[in-house]
Design brief:
mainly alpha; about 400 residues; single chain; two-stranded antiparallel ribbon
Length: about 400
């Protein structure tokens, strides 16, 4: 079945596969290997959808389509060949980043149109297809979200009839600068203002005293002091100080005598009722109580803070425990599925005749499967589990034999 037929025959219950199948159809003629990788991921998405559709009316139709998709992949694998380790993921990422760069350049220049939407969508699909080889890298996850968001914004603008304006576009381009210069040059020139002589300062009839030196300037009042003849008694010249008497320097024993001759500091009585606690000394015996009174007792209690931290840690531990229990449940389910496959394999070997079994069940001496071969065997094992869920023993047996041939070197 060709790519166009796969898109046209996709049932509505598997509409989530349409974006992948459409991109595989677009790459079908230009890059068949890339189209094969996209459809391979679409098949995995289809198998996951079968589990959700189990027990519904669409179960049989969806299972039939997924089997057709897997048959198409088996037929194309012969022409596409096998990929080296890591080569398939790099091929997807290379094309995804190239298309993303082209779409981003168009979007930043306000060229958001249907072509830009298609490029962003294709880039996001190719990035998502790398999940079949493991989790996406953090930077690829960010680009994937950005591509999907930007494509949605452009589509909304087109549907509403409003021209799309990119939030990433530069605020001003070189063309805008040139247009501004042309507008400024086109403005009429203004003549310079005429010269106006400053008005003379007003004259005063009051005479000012003459000052012959800088000693008369009062910096505190930003003015001049009156002359010496009219100065009040408070500004009279102080008598000259006498030089200290000559003699030996004072000893430390005379410290009290020396301090008694100095002026005393002003009394602290005006500040006694300023609202601050009074202390007689600088002892540190009651420093914690005084700090508590100053702060009003509003400080956090260390015991309460520690209890809050412990409660937060308990909540985090409960979340981690719940996540671990979920992982254990998933691992147990996977082990049960593998056990079912192992029992079926044992039954096949027993029915094939004796303990030796068929040739595909006997490992080739010295053979070790490559990473791609182990990936193919894992896919076939998933197909076996999916087929058994739908009671399709024939398909399960065929895929089981294919997986045994791959891991035992009989390909």
């Amino acid at each position: 079945m060709d790519n166009q037929a796969l898109v046209a025959s996709c049932p509505p219950c598997l509409k989530t596969l349409v974006p992948y199948l459409t991109r595989a159809r677009d790459f079908g003629t230009r890059d068949p290997a890339l189209a094969y990788l996209i459809k391979s991921y679409a098949a995995q998405v289809g198998i996951s959808s079968l589990v959700k559709l189990k027990g519904t009316a669409d179960e049989g139709l969806a299972a039939e389509y997924v089997i057709k998709l897997m048959d198409a992949l088996e037929g194309e694998k012969k022409t596409c060949g096998t990929f080296a380790e890591g080569e398939a993921k790099q091929a997807l990422l290379k094309n995804a980043l190239l298309i993303f760069k082209r779409a981003d350049d168009r979007e930043r220049t306000n060229q958001g149109d249907k072509s830009c939407i298609a490029m962003f969508t294709t880039a996001s699909v190719l990035m998502e297809c790398t999940k079949q080889f493991g989790e996406m890298d953090p930077d690829i996850v960010e680009k994937h979200r950005y591509a999907r968001y930007t494509a949605t914004q452009i589509k909304r603008a087109i549907d509403s009839g409003v021209p799309y304006s990119s939030p990433n576009a530069p605020l001003q381009t070189a063309e805008d600068d040139e247009a501004l210069i042309r507008e400024l040059n086109a403005l009429p020139s203004q003549p310079p203002p005429a010269h106006v002589d400053p008005a003379p300062p007003p004259t005063s009839t009051q005479s000012q005293p003459a000052f012959n030196s800088f000693d008369g300037f009062d910096a505190a009042s930003n003015g001049y002091l009156p002359s010496a003849g009219s100065a009040p008694a408070a500004f009279a010249a102080a008598p000259p100080q006498q030089p200290p008497p000559a003699g030996p320097p004072p000893r430390m024993d005379d410290l009290d005598a020396l301090m008694s001759g100095l002026p005393q500091p002003p009394s602290s009585a005006p500040y006694a009722n300023a609202g601050l606690p009074q202390t007689d000394s600088m002892d540190t015996d009651g420093i914690e109580e005084r700090l508590a009174r100053l702060s009003g007792g509003a400080g956090p209690n260390p015991s309460t803070v520690r209890v809050t931290e412990l409660e937060s840690e308990v909540v985090q531990l409960k979340r981690k425990l719940a996540a671990a229990e979920s992982q254990v449940a998933a691992a147990q389910k996977q082990a049960a599925d593998y056990a079912q496959v192992a029992n079926m394999l044992k039954a096949q070997l027993t029915a094939a005749g004796g303990s030796g079994g068929p040739s595909f069940a006997i490992p080739t001496p010295g053979f070790h499967p490559t990473l791609d071969q182990m990936t193919d065997a894992q896919k076939n094992a998933k197909y076996v589990i999916s087929a058994l869920q739908f009671k399709d023993v024939t398909t399960a047996r065929d895929n089981l034999i294919k997986a045994m041939r791959i891991i035992n070197g009989h390909v």
